[in-house]
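Sample intake sheet
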Amino acid sequence: MNLEEAIIFANNMTKTKYHHGMVQMGNLNDDEANFYFEEAKSYKQLAKWLEELKDLREYKEKYRWHDLRKNPDDIPDVEHRKKEYFHVVQEGKETGPTILQYKKDFGFGFYNDFGNGQKFTEVDTNFTAPIVAWKEIEKFESEGENADTSRR
């Protein structure tokens, strides 16, 4: 059973236990009904925790370090991105990441808009050590932004 199936199972068990509790209430068996309601509550909590685990796994996967020494083809998907920045680590400078943009045709560097479109500013491996790892930078959302999106 995978995580998605476990979430579905826990949600189904919540409904089943609640239904059994309602049947017992109809039979005037309060103790048995309360037992089923408590079980339903436990399954509901389990489903909530499993959803949180799923969200944490997705977050961890999205913002993980991609080691290009192990998989050189694991590069950012930037076809539709504009001015997207990434944390990068250069070979021999693994102690502190820096922030660069990535452009599919050029690699990591800085890009500026001059007249006829984007122009690559030579910062890639011509002037720095090769990039050995990268990861996405988490987007900042203020509490005001969260409140605005929840109202939609």
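Comment: Residues 66-136 form one domain. The two ends are 35 Å apart (CA to CA).
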